[in-house]
Amino acid sequence: MMTFADKIIHFNTHIEFHGTLPGGIRMMNPYRESETALAASTAFYRKYYDDRNPRHLILGINPGRFGSGTTGVSFTDPKRLAGKCGIPFPGPVTHEPSSEFIYDMIDAYGGPEQFYHGFYIHSVCPLGLTIKGLNGKETNYNYYDSKELQNALMPFILDNIHQLISMGFETDVCFCFGTGKNESFLRKLNAQHGFFGSIVALEHPRFIMQYKSKSKQDYIAKYLEAFSSVRKEP
After folding, report:
1. Do 97 and 74 contact (CB within 8 A), yes or no?
2. Per the database record, which ranges form the Uracil-DNA glycosylase-like domain (predicted)?
3. CA atoms within 13 Å, Cβ hemisphere of 23
4. pLDDT, tens only, 56-111
5. Residue-range domains of the chain with CATH
6. Cα–Cα distance for residue pair 110/106, rounded to 1 Å
């Protein structure tokens, strides 16, 4: 019988987008584009998910360039992957503020082993997106930033959630990172398809670090309170 590690790694190594994206938008697939990301993420999931314990889903927006777009692990930049999770990363050591917040929260929860025993962080859109500006520089882009993009991604997003549920994750509660457009989109999708019993939305780590950093500890406390309702002990 497959473990969650087996299922997640299989999902990652087989994920592929077959649609057409609007002009100027690129999709990042670290599992196909980077042997380093594939090896590091595989080691991560073998370390923390090599069991059959039920877990709750946390869905963010879509991967960013310097976090899971680099490591293949949601909200985990190379600095945190090595320093907090003990997984070597021989590539560039990038820093993502969202990852900093998440691992401060995970430390407060009890550490990675404790946290990942009960939760799996993923995204509504499982692969990252970038857009190229007039200066030729790529920046992160969100699946909901244009209606055309959202429509193009809809079959991909629906298939992503169906596959997550088929892996055996809990469906009574789904946690959502983002209390704006991501929450609105996920609630509408859930109302149409009945994926989850309820959705609990939390402010997105990027929003907290960019606009509310002085209140970071308050938001960590809010996260911990929300997660306490479904907490599982190893």
Report:
1. no
2. 47-227
3. 1
4. 999 999 998 878 889 999 999 999 999 999 999 998 888 899 999 999 999 999 99
5. 4-228 (3.40.470.10)
6. 6
